[in-house]
Amino acid sequence: MRKQIPREFDFHRERAMMEFIGSSIGRNFKDVYVPTVLSAASSSKTITMTYMQGVSLAKFIQDRSSIQRTSLSTFAYNLIAVFGYQIFEIGTFHSDPHPGNILLQENGSFTLLDFGQVKVLSDNVRIGMAQLVVALSYDSSYVSDCFKHLGLKVEGATENLIEIVAYVIFDTRMDIPEANMNPFDDSIPHEMRSIKISTIPQEVFMLIRIIALLRGILSSIGIDIHSREIWLPYAQSFLNRRKIRTLAKKNSSEKVAQKRFTQNHGGMEQIARWMAQQGVRTSKERLKHLALANIWSMKDFAEFLSTGNDDQIHRVLRGFSLDERDTIRRNMVKWPAT
Fold this sequence. Notes:
Elements: H1 11-28, E1 32-33, E2 55-56, H2 57-63, H3 69-90, E3 92-94, E4 102-104, E5 110-112, E6 118-120, H4 123-137, H5 143-149, E7 153-155, H6 159-170, H7 190-193, E8 196-199, H8 202-220, H9 227-241, H10 252-263, H11 265-277, H12 284-292, H13 298-307, H14 310-316, H15 322-332
Parallel strand pairs: 1-5
Antiparallel strand pairs: 2-4, 3-6, 4-5, 7-8
Helix pairs in contact: 3-9, 4-5, 4-9
């Protein structure tokens, strides 16, 4: 009887996955690389590939090597984006993105290594995950429905707590207290302790695992960006291609804000230009919370940041990382000189 080869040692499969994912990434990302397999020098026992430049991210984190903050931000954004692309665009993803499997270059570009663990997702899980990304992006009440679609069973949690659980295990955000909690810490609130996820399908577990790995990388380099925001266009595009209606709906105030966003385009452009000058990336999706808060000009923005409390500022700037928020608040003091 022929022995079944464990997938991490199935070099034929690894070569095929490296070629498939590598060619897909290569057509869509200019700063993300995958080695090219040298077929003539490979066999069932070995894989030979092109030499790739860069330092192991594990070594970079350990040595705290110097690299420009803008390059690290580029790396962080592209790292999250390339996994959204793999999950929703091709349905096949590198499932072991730990720091030892990433080579980082000084300009922020990077190489993914070791395709021994690659997961192929079913359409059902991709649909459920896409719906969940949309729901989290719109702060929708449909999160628990998305959990059911994914086959997740959560016990001892209210609807509100299920939403918090979703942010903790399906998003890389670190700007909520629960994302930084140690599950063995005695200070964890009782309602959080009582939550139990009793059922996690294997495919879904792999998604949770890579999100945890990605969050760990972002935490180690001190950058807080939210995967749900970067993955939203990929999730919506996937659902549109399948002609599947999203569960989440924008609320009426957001629809009004979107209309006014168009009507007040000039003022919002001024804010976007100023943010770009500070090295902060902007998009319509990121700026929508300013519109919801009736902020339409640099003057409005400056007044809000000087008079708003921390909770109000958090809600309006929640589309930005903690570092970006600090940059905005610090440099706004210098406006209009900047």
